[in-house]
Amino acid sequence: MGIRILIADDHHVVRRGLAFFLKTQKDIEIIGEAGNGREAIEIARTLKPDLILMDLVMPEMDGIQATKIIKTEMPEIKIMMLTSFSDQDHVIPALEAGASGYQLKDIEPDELINCIRKIMSGENQLHPKATSHLLANLSNKESNEKNLLEQLTKRELDVLKEIARGKSNKEIASSLFITEKTVKTHVSNLLAKLELADRTQAALFAVKNQLVE
Description:
Radius of gyration: 23 Å
Structural class: alpha/beta
Largest sheet: 6 strands, parallel
Oligomer: single chain
Distance between the termini: 46 Å
CATH architecture of the largest domain: 3-Layer(aba) Sandwich
Number of strands: 6
CATH topology of the largest domain: Rossmann fold
Shape: elongated
CATH superfamily of the largest domain: Response regulator
Strand order of the largest sheet: 2-1-3-4-5-6
Order of helices and strands: EHEHEHEHEHEHHHHH
């Protein structure tokens, strides 16, 4: 059975050109075309493609918003962004939305086919510029987390470690020889400093930063 593809792009010429070339491949079937993100969602709901070639900037609804909705409702559908934009402001949101691939429209036809097949086999396919932005973003996050950790007092750090070990406020108070009220104050302060919403996020943060095993 071939790879069933939906092409979403607001330029008719681009859609026609992609469809014309892709149809020459025996293992690929073009099942539909969409001119914007909203159309892409409706067609995806009806036809359930294997993969969507998604443009980023389109009228009514852009590719990132459409990708978020499609991946939420139909996570089995693979999405490859095919765009002219390689800046971080587009790359990171697209990948966070759930895209399995991010390629520029100047990609060679044979390479496009190769990327499609690899995505369908479970691999992610990113343009070198997209990979560079992703790595930079991860590096920035790690640097930011390190800076946030440095804001904690020694006692707040101790409380954070105890939270990660699954201890209640009462247990933390007993372990650190402080009152429960003091523990609550430390918890409130460290959550604010680390920009976290709750104890669960705090525990995950501690494990991620190797504060506990």
